[in-house]
Fold:
Amino acid sequence: MSKKLLVAIMALVWSAQVGASTVWINSVKIEEVLMQSHDGYQAVTVRYSGADNVMLACAPTVQHKVVSVWTSGDISAFIQGWVSLLLAAQAQGLTVDIAVDSANCNTAGIWDAYGSPEGLGYRFSAVRVKAD
Structure:
């Protein structure tokens, strides 16, 4: 009986941590979409306005209000789809929500488009466009 209880508790704790790193930055406007390349890596960086970053801990995201997605090699069709979605939202002035992985903060000095602190900020994993 105690083994079953221990396994159940461990499963509950583990399942709670699986999605714990996803954080939504809600109701923001897209100010800029930047595509950049360096040393075999490609990055799409989004600069946004309108959100309070008090609860976030990634310096580039907090200071510059930027989040990014990056990859080695070519930009995939999926990431190109995000770029299209982001540019459409920006052009229409629509509000978006952006999901970021709070366990994945890029602070590499090679990504300095926004000055100090350097880096790409949090890695984003989803974008939701909202009708205003």
About this structure: Residues 4-18 have pLDDT under 50 and may be disordered. Strands lie at 22-38, 41-49, 66-72, 95-106, 121-130. The radius of gyration is 17 Å. The first helix runs from residue 2 to 18.
